[in-house]
């Protein structure tokens, strides 16, 4: 996931993002999203899964609450998660993954560790999906089926934290906490396996590659990871929240994020009006105006040009009249409507402004590698997360989180299923856990690992227990 103030603090990273985009996609990005039904997609984004079973889904017919249920599950799950040996097991998994970070679609060791741990606790799984992905299954093997997701990939960042389990791989680091996500989901697998006879359906655990680049979620879906699944949940560690605080919100949570690369070329080399530099300059100014002049000030949006290059092989020896200019940038928005509107206007502005100066332009939005619509939480799934978190950890450990201008490929799951994305706080000043994700100084308070395992397990178990279709 990407930092919300990326345009201020992550400029160097954006350069890296663009290099990756332009030279060897997939690139490294972060973004967030949301959707409106009336906005046509430029092309199908997802495989043709049936619509989510909102109408028949018990969770939509009545609010999910814990009232009237046996609350013994809370103590049992927390106790299992916090057992000394369980904590050690989860921490060791996280530390091993942290020491051996792997980038998108290269999660060989990480995937192997996941499968080894699942073998150890007797949990069956399907492998591979999306090259390195794993889908584990616990429960009755029958509907209802609920899914939990963890992402496995690291970032191309050199770790600058000096600690015992520092990254052993030069230039790669788990700077977004995905090592913790995998460890927490393994911890949840252990709890759920122990409680398997109590499950009123099936839990699928998705260990997914390539969240930071390459849209691993989309490829997991294409490989059948969601077959039979009726709802999905996922967590992300957050340095904004104090350790073990759970945070989320209904509706738009994370912005849609994408990148663009435009190539502006002279239409007619003999034309005296032709000017790629002038065209590119006016394009940059006009793109900035899209937000300042066209966007609703209450509907947060970003358009930013981060790269411009006119020193191509076609430039003359004085560099005065290059016949090709390449420029690139990013855009973000919280509503799907605004997101697709921005995409359309960016293309229109680049093409039209270029034409004024005797040039033609083409625009690539990298829709197969880094096109992330906004992430929107289903209201009922959000309420489920909130209710479970409050029941399990107490109301003092739950916060309604503000929308964040980061992004996540979890949005691809949320486009086809009722879903909720939530944060687990990892901020702990005394443990040095104060830096944002994607910082080379990023670190987490490992004390959240058992809490995260318990929350994941409880979300899945309670979803099945409180669903009308349970046992059907
Ligand atoms: Zn990230
Ligand atoms: Zn992340």
Explained architecture:
α7 (178-194) packs across α13 (448-465). β1 (124-129) and β2 form a beta hairpin. The chain has 472 residues and is of the alpha/beta class. Residues 3-68 and 468-472 have low confidence and may be disordered. The strands form three sheets. An eight-stranded mixed beta sheet has the order 1-2-4-3-5-15-6-14, sandwiched between helices. Strands 8, 9, 10, 11 and 12 form a five-stranded antiparallel beta sheet that branches. It has two domains: 45-253 and 376-465, 3-Layer(aba) Sandwich (Aminopeptidase); 256-371, Alpha-Beta Plaits, CATH 3.30.70. It has helices spanning 6-9, 11-23, 58-61, 72-82, 84-99, 108-120, 178-194, 216-222, 276-294, 336-356, 379-393, 411-414, 448-465, and strands spanning 124-129, 133-139, 145-151, 202-208, 229-242, 246-248, 251-254, 256-266, 301-309, 324-333, 359-364, 371-372, 375-377, 398-400, 419-427. 34% of the residues lie in helices and 21% in strands. Bound molecules: zinc ion (2 copies). One zinc ion is lined by residues 1, 176, 178, 211, 236.
